[in-house]
What does this fold into?
Amino acid sequence: MKRSFCLTAVLLAITAFTFGAGRGQGSSQSASGNVKKIRFSSFQTGDVEKDWVEVQFPRFQKEKGIVTEHVFIAQADTIATIMTWTAAGTAPDAAMLSANYQNALAAQGLLVDLDRYIREKKPGYNIKRYFPRLLDVYKYKGVSYAFPSDYDLGLLWYNKDMFDSAGVAYPTENWTWNDYRNAAAKLTRGSGPEKVYGTELTHLNITVWQAGGDFFSSDGLTATINTPQVKKAYEFIYGLIRDGYAPVPGDGGGAFQEGHAAMHAGGHGPWYAHYSLADVDFKWDVAPMPRGDVKSTTGYGSSFGILSNSKNQDEAFEFLDWFLSDEQQYIRAKQFAWFPPTSTVLNYPGFNDVSVLSMNAAQKALVLRESEFSRAPIVVARQNEINQILSRENSLVWNGEKSIDEALRILQQEINPLLK
It folds into this structure.
């Protein structure tokens, strides 16, 4: 996902300073002094925002006596906007974040240490209900700075009708990347605008992890891009494009949900079933990601954190506690296909019905099994700049304009200084 400190973020920050400064961190009491007000920022719009503002926020106020104001921040602008608002003294009290950039904020001291907060103020909080692997994703240097609000797990989606027509056996948990590539070759057919690809492009992070590599060292201080493991992953992905089994990214063709690709590997989580596949005219299913040298898949999503400059941290924690409760998570799953981050929600009556998440019981059980192998990318403070460099070099490789060796050498050379 491309992230940059854009003009929009600056304008938003100026607007927030002009109109928010008089609100004292954006929080206030009513004339009676009994009602607290907090501000919550997120990148949600449409039906989710409408449900929050019109249904859930009023309910939260009725139960907890806390008024909540929603502030929109474009997801790609979250880091820049929150940093600017914090400097201006207008940051929200709580925020919807993502594993893609949350640690960049934690590294700047902008988020509350939730482990310490719970020890000191909420010792009875049941943190064990979260999936352990998912909870670990939202830790920075071993400390929780946010709690997960959904589970976006990488899976292998496939078109059963295309597999049947080509006489290819369905994917299994024993599939290797060679099995995946061989199936993609058999499933590719046609040419031009009507071409059907064997697969959409494989998720880069998963491919690198499964080859035993990563982009950074575990402490985020050294680039580890120019290695045999990462090269192996790049060669695999480029081979799919070169041989015509997967489309070039950005070309606009080969969409799985439109019936132009037989498989999609790793880029979509459980939400995909509800938002993209609920009304397709073909039969589909999910399988584990193919196995490489190391069994891995992506497993993260969005999270809720408290801003360290908030003057209403207790009320902000009440907000997190309430909105991440099992009841609220079940509502999110049923209405908006957010796979719950807590195992306790799975015991709700009706959770396994296909009307929830548009997935059947077996498909939901697969998500739980695969969660044991999930992980999230290592995120560093200057991730925005690094993402732009990665996007530039990867595009040149996928389009055949630069060799993998040259691209990895340049990536290592340009990214390493940004980690110091």
Remarks:
- Residues 7-151+301-348 form a domain with the D-Maltodextrin-Binding Protein; domain 2 fold (CATH 3.40.190.10).
- The longest strand covers residues 36-42.
- The radius of gyration is 22 Å.
